[in-house]
Amino acid sequence: MKNLFLYLLLASLLQSCVTARKTTYLQPPVDETISMADTMHPKPALYKILPSDNLFIRVITPDPKWAAMFNTMPVATTMFTTTEQSTELISYPVMPDGTIDIPYVGHIQVSGKTLPEIKELIERSLADYITDYDVTVRLVNNYISILGDVNKPGRYAIYKDQLNIFQALAMAGDLGDYSDRYQVQIVRQTSGGTFIKEFDLTKRNIISSEFFYVMPNDVIYARPMKGKFFKMNTFPFSIILSTVTTAILIANYIK
Q1: Tens-digit pLDDT profile for residues 57-86
Q2: Which end of the chain has the least Cβ crowding within 10 Å, N or C?
Q3: Going by C-beta distance under 8 Å and a sequence separation of 6 or more, which residues neighbour residue 41?
Q4: Could you tell me which residues are beta bridge partners of residue 203?
C-alpha cells in the first residue's frame, strides 16, 4: 500500500513538471549544429484581399473639385481614432463578388489582389478624370486573434506588414507556462479556403515556414499541455501528501 501511494505521488509530480526544453523557443538541433536553412526565412507574402474585407481609399489631388468628388467620406482623416464598428463609414467593403464600387468610376475587381495591385488599378481608372493625383489604399480590418493558453488572449490590430509569429505572441503577453509549444496552430483564410497549420515553436525550422509571418484575419491558437491540469499552484498536493502520510501511519500502526 505504501509503495502504491508513493508511485501515485511520483506520477503526479512528473505530470506537473515543466522543463526548460518544453518552454524554450528556437532550440538548436540536438547535435548543436546550425545549418544555413535554420537561419534563413522566405520573403513574406503580401496579403491578398478577400470578400468581406474593408479598404480605405483616398485620392490626393490639388484640384479641390476632384478631391471632393472622389473622397466622399470626410471622416477618413480620423481613421485611426475610429472604432471597428465605424469602418463601413470610412471604407469601401469588398462585396461577395470581389468588387468595390467607387463613385464615378464603377465596380473594380479587387478580390485576390494585393494592395499595390489595387492601387495601380484605381490609378488607371482615375486617369480619365484627373491628371495630377496620388492614391492611398489601406486595409481597414487588419486584425489577428490569439486564443488559448496565452497571458492576454484577444483580438489585436496589426500596423506592420512583416509581423512574425513571435511578435504576435508578444502582443498577447507570450504563451502561458503550461502552453504546448510543440503544437501551436494557425487558422488562415485564403481565396482557396480556410487552412489550419500546426507547428513546433521550439524548433528553428519555423523561421523557414510560410506561416512564420502572420496575415490579417489569422487566428493563433495555443493548446494547453496535459501538465496544466496538474500544475503545482492549483493542484491540491498538500492535501494529497497529508492523506498519504496519514494512510502510511495507519497502515504501519495496524501492521
Answers
A1: 988 888 888 787 777 554 444 444 455 556
A2: C
A3: 207, 208, 212
A4: 27
Query: How many C-beta atoms lie closer than 10 Å to residue 62's C-beta?
Result: 9
Angle made by CA atoms 41, 110, 48, in degrees to the nearest 5 = 15
Residue of higher predicted confidence among 227 and 218: 218
CA distance 55 to 145: 20
pTM above 0.90, yes or no: no
Q: Is the pLDDT of residue 226 over 50?
A: yes
Residue 80 amino acid letter? F
Candidates 81, 106, 102; CA nearest to 92 is 102
CA pair distance 255, 252, nearest whole angstrom: 5
- pLDDT-derived band at 248 (thresholds 50, 70, 90) equals confident
For the chain, the straight-line distance linking the first and the last C-alpha, in angstroms and rounded, comes to 12
Residues 6+ apart with CB under 8 A from 157: 142, 143
Q: At residue 216, does pLDDT exceed 70?
A: yes
